[in-house]
């Protein structure tokens, strides 16, 4: 029992040290010339995207294949508000509106999907959402500019540092939010739903409400990332905004790190980016082949993710004390 507070302090110290390092690093180097700064920015984005997927799929057991839909919404809301003159460069209000727009769509679409569909059918339904929105944007006329897309004035760009720090802030806030959720009654309810939906319902847990909550939170942070991406690339079109990589890569990273774990997705993000970059440097021509082989090897030898290897458990959350007992004791 005495080891637990010490372990928490150690983990907190490591987390604070890492955040401190990430904060000061771009201030110590030439950020514009540093490829590592760009890689860190990319990693922060994927940490947020991965945890956005993890909260619904890993904690609540609702596997979504439609995160690219929410990313695309974030991109287009930012681009459209900028073009209309209602938002400025890296406008926090526009970013919040982008996240809120994705969250609203998640609620509207999630209510019927989560109420009626389970498992693979829900996953396919969310995948269809992304395609519907892509086609809608493609045929949106002057509102979305169709296949040509919407261009944002790029002359406002001065440095990568604002993007870097905003991406870091969003990822840290996402991690903190997930930590508080995971250590609350909400987190226990989500795990209960994932383990046995029927038993969770019998214990008085409002299934649909918690499913919608997890799905919406994931959509919100994904929309924030889409908004930041719009400011970074300065041109939004359907091919980039609704690209399947925005859902495939986070899923791979979560699986690599450990589905339904808190730290696992972060480990997965940095491990996968590091592996892909190393392969790209060593064998640029064969990069796609070796990248695919790397994913297959990880799936074969670490099916439960890096966290399962580090902790010695197949799935840390699945081996915890039953959440039903905890909920019953704390009603």
Distance between the termini: 25 Å
Structural class: mainly alpha
Strand content of the residues, in percent? under 5%
Radius of gyration, rounded? Answer: 20 Å
- Major sheet, described briefly? 2 strands, antiparallel
- Tell me the strand order in the biggest sheet: 1-2
* Total helical elements: 15
What sort of overall outline do the alpha carbons produce when their principal axes are compared?
globular
**Poorly predicted tracts of residues:** 314-331
Average pLDDT value? Answer: 88
The helix/strand order is HHHHHEHHHHEHHHHHH
How many strand units? 2
- Helix residue percentage: over 70%
Question: How would you describe the overall organization of this protein?
Answer:
With 331 residues, this protein is an all-alpha fold. The protein has a domain at 32-246. The protein has 15 helices and two strands. The protein has helices at 3-28, 35-59, 67-83, 92-116, 119-138, 161-182, 185-195, 197-202, 207-233, 238-241, 245-257, 264-282, 287-301, 306-311, 323-329, and strands spanning 150-151, 235-236. α3 (67-83) packs antiparallel against α4 (92-116), α3 crosses α9 (207-233) and α4 crosses α5. The model is unreliable at 314-331 (pLDDT under 50).
Descriptors for this entry?
single chain; 331 residues; mainly alpha; globular
Describe the secondary-structure layout.
Blueprint: H1 3-28, H2 35-59, H3 67-83, H4 92-116, H5 119-138, E1 150-151, H6 161-182, H7 185-195, H8 197-202, H9 207-233, E2 235-236, H10 238-241, H11 245-257, H12 264-282, H13 287-301, H14 306-311, H15 323-329
Antiparallel strand pairs: 1-2
